[in-house]
Design goal:
alpha/beta; Rossmann fold; nine-stranded mixed β-sheet; 13 helices
Length: about 300
């Protein structure tokens, strides 16, 4: 099945996105993570469209057909950049207070827009809770078993890792899928449909910058300095929120009890559901139900 892709100028990017449903419907924006693509929402979108939604699924910076407008722009993968990208996409498409949702990088962008510009969205679905990086706190080591799960981040801190990602981007991503979703048996065709998005010329630079910036090993884009300052204060999220925790996420344990209440002042529901790290693709029904709950449908 083909997927119609459009492009819109939004801030520093020409963002490629897929859109389904009525333009007069209630708006939803769904964001993928690393290393995934809009294909992770193929099982989610039909249920939302059937309920009257106008669903937008963009390719994040460094993926698919999304491109930087200016060759001189830093290929940043920092969290503030993801937030600005989503905020500017909402404005560029003229979406009126959409529900936003995502996981991994996409969950980070969605959480931060809900925190920094809460009037621009009407609700949030986030996998894993408060997906905001504590960069100052990154100097403190975690328990060894948790550090082990983050091997890919440390690998990318060196130039050997950059060359490895450049040469083996598909193998790298497929290994992460297996480790992060140990109970999910995906097909080669399913993976290949997503892996096409990694051919973006900025993919490696954006990914490497992301995992170096989160440990304060490289500077961010000065354009996002003010946003990073606000993020460092760990702002609460005041919009109606549904938190989904994946029961079998190979990347790490679920947050401790009370974590969600600390950061979400309007927590509508918290659900632990079957699935691994790529939850929307593994359990699309659960993700769609969370969006529909916020929409009152």
């Amino acid at each position: 099945m083909g997927h119609e892709v459009s492009v819109v100028r939004a801030g520093v990017l020409d963002i490629a996105y897929e859109r389904r449903g009525s333009r007069q419907g209630w708006p939803v924006v769904l964001l993928h993570g690393f290393p995934y693509s809009p294909r992770c929402y193929d099982g989610v979108v039909p249920s939302l469209v059937a309920a009257g939604a106008d669903v937008v699924v963009p390719y994040l910076r460094g993926y698919g057909g999304t491109r930087f407008v200016d060759a001189a722009t830093l290929r940043s993968g920092q969290q503030a950049a993801l937030a600005h990208d989503l905020h500017e996409l909402i404005a560029a498409l003229g979406l009126r207070r959409p529900i936003v949702g995502g996981f991994d990088w996409g969950g980070r962008g969605a959480c931060l827009v809900a925190a920094l510009w809460p009037d621009s969205v009407s609700g949030l679905v986030t996998v894993g809770g408060y997906n905001v990086q504590d960069i100052p706190g990154a100097v403190n080591p975690a328990a060894p078993e948790q550090e082990c799960a983050h091997w890919y981040q440390f690998y990318l801190h060196g130039e050997r890792g950059r060359r490895g990602l450049q040469r083996y981007r598909r193998e790298f991503a497929q290994l992460l899928w297996r480790q992060w979703s140990p109970r999910w048996t995906f097909t080669e065709d399913e993976f290949a449909a997503t892996a096409e998005s990694f051919d973006n010329p900025d993919f490696v630079d954006v990914v490497v910058h992301s995992y170096r910036h989160r440990y304060a090993l490289v500077d961010g884009d000065p354009a996002y300095a003010a946003a990073e300052t606000r993020i460092a204060s760990k702002p609460v999220i005041p919009v109606p929120t549904v938190v989904l925790d994946a029961a079998h996420d190979g990347l790490g344990a679920r947050p401790v009890t009370g974590h969600h209440d600390d950061y979400f002042t309007r927590l509508v529901d918290h659900r632990v559901v079957d699935g691994g790290h790529g939850l929307p693709q593994e359990n699309p029904a659960a993700f769609a139900e969370a969006v529909l709950l916020l929409a009152g449908r």
